[in-house]
Amino acid sequence: MIELENLTVTFDDFTAVTDINLHIERGEFVTIVGPSGCGKTTLLRAVGGLQKPTAGRIQIDDQRPAAAQKAGDIGFVFQQQTLFPWKSALENVVFLRKMANESPNRKEARALLDSMGLEGFEDARPSALSGGMKQRVAIARALHLGADVLLMDEPFGELDEITRDELGVEIRSLWRREQKTIVFVTHSVPEAVFLGNRCVVMRDEPGRIEATFDIDLPDPRDTEVFGSRAFQEQVATVRQTLHESYDE
Ligand SMILES: Nc1ncnc2c1ncn2[C@@H]1O[C@H](COP(=O)(O)OP(=O)(O)OP(=O)(O)O)[C@@H](O)[C@H]1O
Ligand SMILES: [Mg+2]
Question: What is the number of domains present in the chain?
């Protein structure tokens, strides 16, 4: 369970996010959508123990974020590729486990790469992989860490739409299979609706939560959902909320 209570983060006299209250149950898939600069990354970094709150409180189960992060209980996947260029896909996957002083399990790491559609690419360096493949490696790496909580910051931001959709379907099935708690930040309203069981809409100046929507779509989801009326209606509702807060 992730609990944010009156979270505020300021940089000098600039308020990046303020008064964020959010309760995320274990096993939830929550998406966060909002305009550029509204504080999505700041919020995620605070949850991950990478950014100290200026005020308020964050708990991850019974731990503070920094402790949870140190204990390897939080996995990150960022938009920017953060793979080591000189290491193979497999060595990139096992690396974080080594950092956390846990023994890497190459057999499991291989199986994870296979499950992400990377069979045969275990020994490839990142430079030989496409953007989508690199993101798959980054996801496998976060999974290999064994963390229950996955924080994802626009992990598909630089990918083409087809790859994005495909990875979205994979992340959903991974979430179902592994029963992770996922907090997923995106710019894209359709992506936020497709992936989430709950969608948090943020607004800016200062960054805060504007609204939260329960997403009502069938499960498991595949790309057929995009054509459904329920999907389109929920996308329209979220989009409308974003526009209303933007126009104020
Ligand atoms: N370390 C920092 N020092 C000063 N200001 C910062 C710092 N990090 C973020 N900010 C500011 O806080 C605000 C929120 O930034 P943040 O990166 O969280 O936004 P975002 O919603 O993730 O945007 P984007 O969608 O473009 O990634 C921005 O105005 C940014 O300039
Ligand atoms: Mg960001």
Answer: 2
